[in-house]
From TrEMBL:
Record-level Gene Ontology MF annotations: S-adenosylmethionine-dependent methyltransferase activity
Protein's name according to its UniProt entry: Methyltransferase type 11
Gene3D superfamilies named among the record's database cross-references: Vaccinia Virus protein VP39
Residue span(s) of domain Methyltransferase type: 52-138
InterPro entries, alphabetized: 23S_rRNA_MeTrnsfrase_RlmA, Methyltransf_11, SAM-dependent_MTases_sf
Superkingdom: Bacteria
Pfam families according to UniProt: Methyltransf_11
Biological process, per Gene Ontology: methylation
Length: 252
């Protein structure tokens, strides 16, 4: 295996915009939930005339769909991702809208038959319900509770309180309070494997909320210990959690 310094230096300078994670091939793996979110979303997009994808990242999931509705809109709050999504999706007629996190969605009431999101930052249920047409649906894959916490707590220490966040039942209750009916709610725990310390640096630079303020220099002791663990055991294992949620707006 390459040296610690070589691995972390490479990972500290590689481009981490977008959500494709191609750079991690052969260096890290993550099992996928059994429901196949990309496949489910592609099937729904083919059956509606209008759709909105929230927190689209670099637009990779929407780009995978072979058929898009006549009106397809995506939103993204981080400018490098929004620019990447524009390059990827604009040739297919998709409107890419830059938004500020926490601000109301800049669309009229009942504007979309389908609202979707893979790993939304903080879903605003009232806004989602507002922009859905009557009988419209929300289909999303959320991050579940205590996701990747073996890795996160390696750097931050025990986070007992934060383990309670992203609870699917509480998210479902918030959706109901906004006037949505829950049609499906499932959670899966998925194995993650990291085969070198560069993969860890890459993922922490990408998922910046996992270890806020992460830099190689700031967390060098933790990185060196984790590098030694990977060299001894061949892998560092963590687990992500994912929640599939589908909700419908039944009333006008």
């Amino acid at each position: 295996m390459r040296t610690f310094e070589d691995l972390v230096d490479e990972a500290a300078h590689v481009d981490v915009s977008g959500w494709s994670f191609h750079w991690l091939r052969g260096r890290a793996t993550e099992d996928r939930p059994p429901w196949g979110y990309s496949r489910l979303l592609a099937a729904r997009l083919a059956r509606v005339a209008s759709a909105l994808d929230i927190d689209t990242g670099g637009g990779e999931i929407i780009a995978e769909a072979p058929r898009l509705p006549a009106r397809m809109v995506v939103t993204e709050g981080w400018r490098p991702n929004a620019e990447r999504a524009h390059r990827l999706l604009s040739p297919r007629g998709v409107d890419v809208v830059a938004v500020e996190q926490g601000e109301p969605l800049p669309f009229p009431d009942a504007a979309f038959e389908l609202v979707s999101s893979r790993h939304p930052v903080d879903p605003d249920w009232r806004e989602i319900a507002r922009v859905l047409t009557p009988q419209g649906a929300y289909l999303a894959q959320h991050v579940g509770p205590a996701s990747a916490f073996e890795l996160i707590e390696w750097f931050r220490g025990p986070l007992a309180g934060e383990r309670l966040s992203r609870d699917p039942e509480r998210e479902a209750a918030a959706a109901r309070a906004a006037g949505l009916r829950i049609a499906d709610l499932r959670t899966a725990r998925c194995r993650m494997e990291f085969f070198d310390i560069g993969a860890v640096v890459y993922i922490l630079r990408t998922c910046v909320w996992w270890v806020p303020g992460f830099t190689v220099d700031r967390y060098r002791p933790e990185l060196e210990r984790l590098d030694a663990h990977i060299r001894e055991h061949g892998v560092f294992v963590s687990h992500s959690t994912r929640t599939l949620i589908e909700a419908t707006r039944e009333n006008g």
